[in-house]
Design brief:
The structure is a homodimer of 357-residue chains. Chain A has 357 residues and is an alpha/beta fold. The first copy, chain A, has two domains: 6-35 and 260-356, Aspartate Aminotransferase, domain 1 (Alpha-Beta Complex), CATH 3.90.1150.10; 39-258, Aspartate Aminotransferase, domain 2 (3-Layer(aba) Sandwich), CATH 3.40.640. The first copy, chain A, is built from twelve helices and twelve strands. A seven-stranded mixed sheet of chain A has the order 2-8-7-6-5-3-4, sandwiched between helices. In chain A, α7 (165-170) links the parallel β5 (149-153) and β6 (177-181). In chain A, α2 (39-50) runs antiparallel to α9 (246-257) and α4 (84-96) runs parallel beside α5. The relative contact order of chain A is 0.17. The interface between A and B is large, with 79 and 79 residues.
């Protein structure tokens, strides 16, 4: 007899992208930012280290919440920090969804949503996207209406496209909570200040953000939620009291306080993304217009898995993705390619050209 | 209509000890170690900062697991790191307990267990301790036999006493998992290497540890589980993929690798603890023989709450605790006093003597 919950026995667990621990890779598979974080991060961490690591962190994360509240033009009680937006997503599941209640999310999209729903013992359904990554709202409406939690990444992954606010409003469940997962939100063409939260249905909306991508801080596992205090105060009850540590709080605060640095890296990545898109098209790949730091590329003739394997043999990692279900086809496959530095991009393209010959 | 789960609406959330953010306090309320962590911690964190914070942490925490496995004389796959033992306790709830199943724990004890069970939607019952903090095994056996998860801190909090392995074996549920919460395990008179896990019922046992207390690292939120790989592998499925960050991993690894530093602080704390116990007895407090870094003190004549308040007015914080249920009395109250430095202890005793006059 297993000691585990049946749900836990049944699931595989989420499989993150490969993280080789040796050197020499061009690593374009997990959407990390190729540029270092603000130098103010290391200074803030060193200061925190010279302080008192023997005492518990500030459970209110006051300085981080102050800096972030200013960015979104809200009060501090609208902000909840966590260990990456992954922890925020776990908190959302635990706060709002009882076993058997329904969680929905677009598909193809971020596959962690399914794993988290399984862990929570929740029911879950995929909201199938159209072949051009748009929504057929009438088709998904019945599912949305039955949902306790709807999770939508915007920009979406793996496609990188963004949906307009008018579409987002159509996806808010009438009897549940809507999560706008903006892990890649800083790479959008038109950044925003969370104005959507102040709309009529904003009281049932939570925006999640991470510092892993735009702030170049995947290593510190830091994310946060922005939502009305009625939602934040309940979410806070299910988190560990001291969920964020003194070092990551110091790093995150310094990064958020240095907007210029993040915006400089954002500009560089967007310029490289546009060049990479053009080059992929020249190699006969189909791409989606991306507002993120990665590009979804498909090829009508050559096996995506083969391309992935040949690149890997040359120490270039991209993400080969396989979605068993889609409206387009019985199975959707493709390559999700992170936008690296210009040098990494040139190195990748050179090897890709050789492979495609 | 609330959007939250009924369980979440019903609970208050765990209330941690006060964490004043201003200076000048003698802070003896949350069992922090008064001494700084190993200087190797700051060096390791600085090195990690100069490395690549823009990439994800090592999801396997290889170096930390190697160092810790050696301490417990097991293979690396017996070790699971987390954000404090609090996260490990959350993982244990989510891995083993379905809503409605029973979680039990001694009482008076660590009150977080009840909060975590509530969040999980689990049933929970208190295993009432005898007035002298011992177990009446025959009395609690029916509860143990119905338990899916039994959580026992050893040393216990707030009492600080330790139970022998023979008692621990009696508390292992026949159809569930037993958690030996050793947050204060390094302060025991007889430290061990987890030999109990290799006993007949060891396959249903998990030891949890934290670096917050003995390693002086409450600020980095780091703990770990030690258990048979069959248990660890299932627990791993319910955690976030990258639950520990690059900075806390570097700090934790450096701390665990510097055993001499930890053991030096342990010796100092034990010496101060013995002196503090003696002084409290001279002031007519009743104390429990502590194998932790705190002392449980009660006074038969003066209100514990009054003593706490008078100390707080003088900027001395101890933990006033109130347990509504006990075999001793309708309500048990007392003061849990952390063992500080010698200077802090002298300062506390001086003010306490004035208050008691």
């Amino acid at each position: 007899m297993s000691l585990f919950r049946p749900d836990v026995d049944r699931i595989q667990g989420y499989v993150p992208g490969e993280q080789p621990q040796d050197d020499g890779w061009i690593k374009l598979n997990t959407n990390e930012n190729p540029y270092p974080p603000s130098p103010k991060v290391a200074a803030a961490v060193a200061e925190a280290c010279s302080g008192r690591l023997n005492v518990y962190p500030d459970p209110l994360a006051s300085r981080f919440r102050k800096a972030t509240a200013e960015l979104f033009n809200v009060d501090q009680d609208w902000i909840l920090p966590g260990n990456g937006s992954d922890e925020i997503l776990t908190i959302l599941n635990r706060a709002f969804v009882d076993p058997g209640e329904l969680i929905t999310f677009p598909y193809p999209s971020y596959t962690l949503y399914e794993t988290l729903a399984d862990i929570q013992g929740a029911a879950h359904e995929r909201l199938l996207l159209e072949p051009d990554w748009s929504w057929d709202i009438d088709r998904v409406r019945p599912q949305i209406e039955r949902s306790k939690l709807v999770l939508v990444p915007n920009p979406n992954s793996p496609s990188g496209n963004c949906w307009a606010d008018e579409t987002i409003h159509e996806l808010v469940p009438p009897n549940g909570v809507f999560v706008l997962d903006e892990a890649y939100g800083d790479f959008r063409a038109e950044p925003h200040q969370g104005e959507i939260l102040h709309s009529d249905d904003g009281r049932r909306m939570v925006i999640t953000r991470t510092l892993s991508k735009s702030y170049s801080l995947a290593g510190i596992r830091f994310g946060f939620a922005v939502a009305h205090p009625d939602l934040i105060s309940g979410m806070r009850k299910v988190k560990d009291s001291y969920n964020c540590n003194t070092l990551s709080l110091a790093a995150a605060t310094a990064a958020v306080e240095d907007q210029d640095w993040m915006l400089g890296n954002r500009r560089r990545i967007i310029a490289t993304r546009d060049r990479l898109t053009k080059s992929l098209c020249e190699l006969n790949f189909d791409t989606v217009d991306s507002e993120a730091n990665f590009i979804w590329a498909t090829h009508s003739e050559i096996s995506h898995q083969k391309i992935y394997e040949k690149l890997k043999a040359r120490k270039v990692l991209v993400r080969f993705m396989k979605f068993p279900e889609s409206l387009n086809d019985s199975e959707l496959t493709g390559l999700r390619i992170t936008v690296g530095t210009d040098d990494e991009t040139d190195g990748f393209l050179e090897i890709l050209r050789e492979i495609m010959e």
